[in-house]
Specification:
Two copies of one chain form a homodimer. With about 375 residues, the first copy, chain A, is an alpha/beta fold. Chain A has one domain (about 15-365): Alpha-Beta Barrel (TIM Barrel), CATH 3.20.20.210. Chain A has helices at about 15-20, 40-50, 55-60, 60-75, 90-95, 115-120, 130-140, 155-165, 170-180, 180-205, 225-240, 265, 280-290, 310-320, 350-365, and strands at about 80, 95-100, 105, 150-155, 210-215, 245, 250, 250-255, 275, 295-300, 335-340. In chain A, the strands form three sheets. A seven-stranded parallel β-sheet of chain A has the order 1-4-5-8-9-10-11. Chain A has a two-stranded antiparallel ribbon with strand order 2-3. The longest helix of chain A is centred in the middle third of the chain and has 25 residues, at about 180-205. Chain A is globular. The interface of A and B includes residues 171 and 281 of A.
């Protein structure tokens, strides 16, 4: 299998993650963690202090490269993920992103009426050049150690932030628009979907070897609304993505937090992997989805606050819930170990080492 | 059917809600709303201002009676629910509950170690006398108009607040205890379950005609952990509840927010009704559960920010998702209309009127 996305870069030494994405047999279950380049690492906090701000970090090629590689220096994880933020896309649309310290993201110009929606357009990708530069720089710095994952927010998740203007605990403003002006919501979601697809394709062209769509807020929607306002636009993104680039297949991952109830609706998505949070039973998920896609997940990040022996026991539970993965030639059910959501900033790094070791050790035993 | 819980009180004029709980035919689908006695009503805000604080309101028989009846004066809803808070029980355990303005509940003495768990015990119900007095006063004031629902938090949901000491967005402290000291967590949950059962039985003896267990935070647990740390203790509560009192059956309702993935595990609970949030498809839920229990739910409260015509359309979707309820003699599938979570404080009251009218009108048409 050729898993190098472009001859500019060193050949891949560890293709376990990419093979598992494509439902090919691997010697062990690959593992990486959402938000693995982040605040739980003291070296990340040091780099961020030097950068001055979150966006200072994300917009600097050197800093973004540095923090993306930090977890790889500590842990034998099987993939790197671009250090960035899902809100770069609406920022490039002109909404004015800022991160106030300890407050989370905020947009200066949220999208709350017909005039604001009318002003939206797929942004010029030149405004996101810093992201693609970071992708190329990281890919080069990785030197083929592990594959690099690019990512974007889902059209619906971006719309949540664009309308609310910040995080929310009730999604009142975005749902008010959804229920009272579904026409405006559809208009915004189409633009978001086309922007996300273009953005991910540019990441692939810059060197991303897999891409992941984070539908972080799909799970707040009602049944029916999820299918109409989130899933349909994730499909629209997927339909436009490069499936191959530079002679390599580019797997895609869709992760809907809180989306476990809709796995049957997601089973026919045109992607390679479904990410699952910790509420999902992997045995059942494999039955519903397993025939067509790899599964990624799904340890509760809070398990990492327990002692190593307990972390190991919970890792084994997750591995056993998925069951024995495919071995031998051809394709079959495969599992990529991950947390069910981003790692907590309070996590002791040595507990992550215990997690990675347990996944690698026990998943070899299972085969 | 005798639906009067005690001869002290006036006979019931509208038993639609209780009949639907017991899976008996009704002329229309009954409707009430979680948090219907609350901040979205100007008259509630006026009473609360007079009471000075949330606990001033909840601990006064007169005020609690007044606000419980307020939504009934505006809307022809089919049930009243005791005005109180799920945290009265841990408060009676000595944890020191307070509500800082605009901040939500807080405990002065959260339960975070072995010594704190060892000090826990089922509280003396005399400390909760104000709740039972309110139940009796409300039941008297209702004069048989509609039935009165009593309620409590689930053992797990109470444990979340008891350990975190306040609301949380990651449940880190309570899950750290769960994963690192499951023995302590089980000890706390047993005490909580026995306290909740006793508390609900006292409410029934005081005049509650149905009881509801709010497992508001069951949905944050991992698959496996939910069954072990939440559902098992909800079962323990249910096993101790009065099923009949004063010659009347006392239906019980279990509502696990975010619990839609575990409906198959909940199908054999010893309760009469399962409450569902808006992520659940009622058609599927009826197939999984419908043979044994009534279903309650599940409109997204944010629908109430749309115009009346859109509210009506969404009400019809929910009614149609459940489908035609049981008619005729004997028992069969029944539906109690509700929101999928508490009503937002920002809801325009006239939109609630549109909701109630739409449920009553269209559910009669369906029969």
């Amino acid at each position: 299998m050729n898993t190098s996305a472009s001859s500019r870069y060193a050949p891949l030494k560890n293709d376990t993650f990419l093979r598992a994405c494509l439902r090919l047999a691997t010697d062990y279950t690959p593992v990486w963690m959402m938000r693995q380049a982040g605040r739980f690492l003291p070296e990340y906090r040091a780099t961020r202090a030097r950068a001055g701000s979150f966006m200072g970090l994300a917009t600097s090629t050197d800093y973004a490269t540095e923090v993306t590689l930090q977890p790889l220096e500590r842990f034998p994880i099987d993939a790197a993920i671009l250090f960035s933020d899902i809100l770069t896309v609406p920022d490039a649309m002109g909404l004015g992103l800022s991160f106030a310290l300890g407050e989370g993201p905020r947009f200066a110009s949220p999208v709350r009426d017909e005039a604001a929606v009318a002003r939206l357009a797929v942004p010029d990708m030149d405004k996101l050049r810093y992201v693609f530069d970071a992708v190329s720089s990281i890919r080069l710095a990785l030197d083929g150690r592990v594959p690099l994952i690019g990512f974007a927010g889902s059209p619906w998740t971006l719309a949540c932030y664009m309308v609310e203007g910040a995080g929310s605990d009730d999604y009142r403003l975005v749902k008010t628009m959804l229920y009272s002006r579904p026409d405006l919501m559809h208009q915004m979601l189409q633009i978001n979907a086309d922007a996300v697809a273009l953005y991910l394709n540019c990441q692939i062209e810059a060197g991303a070897q897999a891409v992941m769509i984070f539908d972080s807020w799909g799970g707040v929607l009602a049944d029916g609304a999820f299918q109409e306002f989130s899933l349909a636009y994730t499909r629209r993104v997927l339909s436009q993505l490069h499936k191959n680039f530079g002679g390599a297949r580019i797997p895609s991952i869709v992760f809907t937090k809180g989306g476990g109830l809709w796995l049957d609706d997601m089973a026919d998505l045109d992607c390679n992997v479904l990410g699952l949070d910790w509420t999902v039973n992997l045995t059942k998920a494999r039955i519903i989805v397993g025939g067509s896609k790899a599964l990624q997940g799904n340890l509760d990040p809070n398990v990492l606050f327990a002692q190593a022996s307990q972390i190991e026991a919970e890792v084994i539970k997750v591995l056993n819930a998925f069951g024995t993965p495919h071995t031998g030639p051809g394709s079959g059910p495969t599992h990529i170990f991950n947390l069910g959501h981003g790692i907590s900033q309070h996590t002791p790094p040595e507990h992550v080492a215990a997690l990675v070791q347990a996944v690698h050790y026990h998943s070899r035993q299972m085969r």
